[in-house]
Amino acid sequence: MNTNQPNWAAIAEKFDLWLPHIAPVGERLLQALAARAGERILDLGSGTGEPALTLARELQGHVDITGIDSAAPMVAVARDKVAREDLQNVRFETMRAEDLEFPDESFDRALSRFGVMLFDDPLRGTREMRRVLKSGGRFAIAVWSTPETMRTLYWSYQVFGNRLPPELAPPLPKVTSLGGAGVLNELLRLAGFRQFEIIAHTFHYQFASFDAYWDIVEASEILKRQYDALPVEQRKDIRDEVALFARDFQGENGLSIPHDYLIATGIK
Question: Which residues of the chain have pLDDT under 50?
Answer without folding.
Answer: 1-2
